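sry for the spam today, last one i promise. struct tokens for design, 363 residues
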């Protein structure tokens, strides 16, 4: 399936804490690595480079010459590498699909993980101590997400058992279960209303649920338009966001879709974004905030990062990890995770060989 690989270096998830001071990375290597981001940022500033052709269209994401790698073998020849040392490494039992950091303003705000065996785990990221393991899901998990203001202690999970479960960091068992008749690939709380949950699934649909409703298992809205499994859902923020919110979804049909009109009985797709290649793998999706609130980023099976402006269907910036679109079996690589640093134009991207790059969206 899309995240299964013999390559043990795939980074499946990148996640910043609420302040943007730390970033966690995890995937098939059975380890959560937590980095102090300001260490990497300092090195990037000292060694930053500009592309000579940055004025070409589409523009290229400027690469800060700071790179973290799980293996020295992942370093490309001729590239100036920055081998960031993790602040903390947390060994885990199983391969991980996803991480989510509680949005509390605390160094010990819990970090949640979702793994291939259906286990949901909570960690204290300041010490690496396991706070809780829970095994209520019976198949592989794909997604975990904490809620925002008003529901900071709540988080959701979804996976191949067709269930979405709601949790509290204060309770050992789930507090609610939503039953879907399809594998769940993505969950995400609306940032301005944490009682609304978006769910992406393998039946090509995005559903919105009101967790306060008497019949919460019945979706408020179902969004149709993708032709294959929906791999990610992300809510947009910023002044341009319409009433009811705006949502972007990614699919292995190779498209991103922007949805609005979500406060009615039926939302509508107002734009599709195309340019990246995505037919097999989960390649990451991130929606910016603050200075980057108009931008979306995703990976590609050409081993590149693509950035879109929410008002344009074509990419406005790209960055290649390899400079090559070679997808032969022996050298097949893809970008597997992306994350914007909160309220900045700094983007982290990781690929299937375990390399993590810090990129800056240039003007």
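last one done:
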């Amino acid at each position: 399936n899309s995240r299964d690989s013999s390559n043990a270096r795939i980074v499946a998830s990148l996640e910043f804490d609420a302040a943007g001071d730390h970033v966690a990375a995890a995937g098939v290597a059975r380890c959560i690595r937590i980095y102090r981001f300001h260490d990497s940022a300092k090195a990037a500033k000292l060694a930053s480079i500009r592309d000579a052709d940055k004025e070409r269209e589409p523009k290229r994401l400027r690469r800060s010459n700071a790179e973290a790698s799980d293996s020295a073998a992942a370093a490309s020849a001729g590239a100036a590498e920055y081998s960031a040392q993790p602040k903390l490494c947390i060994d885990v039992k199983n391969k991980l699909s996803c991480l989510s950091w509680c949005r509390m303003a605390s160094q010990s705000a819990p970090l949640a993980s979702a793994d291939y065996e259906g286990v949901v785990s909570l960690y204290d990221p300041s010490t690496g101590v396991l706070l809780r393991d829970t095994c209520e899901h019976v198949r592989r998990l794909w997604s975990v997400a904490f809620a925002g203001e008003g529901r900071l202690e709540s988080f959701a999970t979804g996976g191949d058992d067709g269930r979405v479960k709601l949790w509290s960091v204060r309770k050992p068992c789930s507090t609610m279960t939503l039953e879907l008749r399809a594998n769940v690939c993505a969950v995400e709380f609306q940032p301005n209303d944490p009682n609304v949950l978006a769910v992406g699934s393998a039946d090509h649909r995005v559903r919105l649920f009101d967790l306060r409703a008497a019949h919460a298992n019945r979706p408020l809205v179902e969004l149709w338009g993708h032709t294959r499994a929906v791999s990610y859902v992300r809510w947009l923020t910023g002044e341009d966001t319409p009433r009811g919110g705006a949502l972007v979804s990614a699919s292995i049909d190779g498209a991103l879709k922007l949805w609005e009109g979500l406060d009615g009985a039926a939302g509508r797709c107002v734009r599709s974004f195309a340019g990246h290649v995505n037919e097999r793998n989960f390649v990451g999706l991130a929606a910016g905030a603050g200075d980057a609130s108009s931008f979306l980023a995703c990976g590609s099976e050409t081993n590149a990062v693509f950035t879109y402006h929410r008002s344009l269907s074509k990419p406005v910036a790209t960055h290649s990890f390899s400079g090559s679109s070679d997808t032969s079996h022996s050298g097949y690589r893809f970008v597997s995770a992306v994350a914007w640093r909160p309220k900045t134009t700094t983007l982290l991207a990781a690929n299937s060989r375990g390399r993590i790059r810090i990129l800056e969206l240039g003007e």
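The two ends are 38 Å apart (CA to CA). ok im logging off now
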